[in-house]
Design brief:
The complex is a heterodimer of chains A (112) and B (112). Chain A is mainly β and 112 residues long. Chain A contains no helices and 12 strands. In chain A, 0% of the residues lie in helices and 50% in strands. The N and C termini of chain B lie far apart (37 Å). The chains are: A mainly beta (112), B mainly beta (112). Chains A and B meet through strand 6 and strand 11 of A and strand 4, strand 5 and strand 9 of B.
Chain lengths: 112, 112
């Protein structure tokens, strides 16, 4: 079945450092791909998404490109802030609105 | 503003008791989902519904049930709570045609 693999955390970075969180997926079809973010004590929020190969999703300085050839959707940000400290989940869905399969999550801590 | 709410936000119960977690959305979305979040597993799908009187089992449905008597609500029932069901539970909803899922704030359940 479909699945999502993410790099193990926790990840600790200094403010203004470059962030990469790796994500790879396995799917039988052509899924939509997502990054969700969960801030401490809150529910999940959609950070960005891409619905087809070579699409780039972007939001709040974060970017991820749908790479079908490598089945990857790595999350990047050029300069992280303390306020980016959260858990990041890579996910996929056969449709944008349907049930979602999540990776295990990567905890990010950004220190001043 | 439209929203999705969950209640209670925190619940402590004893093994063997029946517990119901509420989920209410005001977007008039057809699709509703229940997930549980556990360390190392990300979010796993418990049950989902595509409309009134429709319910489907997800990846980890054993010991849980749902019913959909109207568009706005999808209560999740633990028939006989077990310690393995200690978790954080998230409800989500989505409309159709490329809308993403929106998540509730979560319910933290402790089964003693």
């Amino acid at each position: 079945g479909d699945s999502v693999t993410q790099m193990e955390g926790p990840v600790t970075l200094s403010e203004e450092a470059f962030l990469t969180i790796n994500c790879t997926y396995t799917a039988t079809g052509y899924p939509s791909l997502f990054w969700y973010v969960q801030y401490p004590g809150e529910g999940l929020q959609l950070l960005l998404k891409a619905t087809k190969a070579d699409d780039k999703g972007s939001n709040k300085g974060f970017e991820a490109t749908y790479r079908k050839e490598t089945t990857s959707f790595h999350l990047e940000k050029g300069s992280v802030q303390v306020s980016d400290s959260a858990v990041y989940f890579c996910a996929l869905s056969e449709n944008s609105y349907d049930k979602v399969i999540f990776g295990p999550g990567t905890s990010l801590s950004v220190i001043p | 503003d439209a929203e999705i709410t969950q209640s209670p936000r925190h619940k402590i119960t004893e093994t063997g008791r029946q517990v119901t977690l509420a989920c209410h959305q005001t977007w008039n979305h057809n699709n509703m989902f229940w997930y549980r979040q556990d360390l190392g597993h990300g979010l796993r799908l418990i049950h989902y519904s595509y409309g009134v009187h429709d319910t489907n089992k997800g990846e980890v449905s054993d010991g849980y049930s749902v019913s959909r008597s109207n568009t706005e609500d999808l209560p999740l029932t633990l028939e006989s709570a077990a310690s393995s069901q200690t978790s954080v539970y998230f409800c989500a909803s989505s409309g159709t045609l490329q809308e993403t899922q929106y998540f509730g704030p979560g319910t933290r359940l402790l089964v003693l």
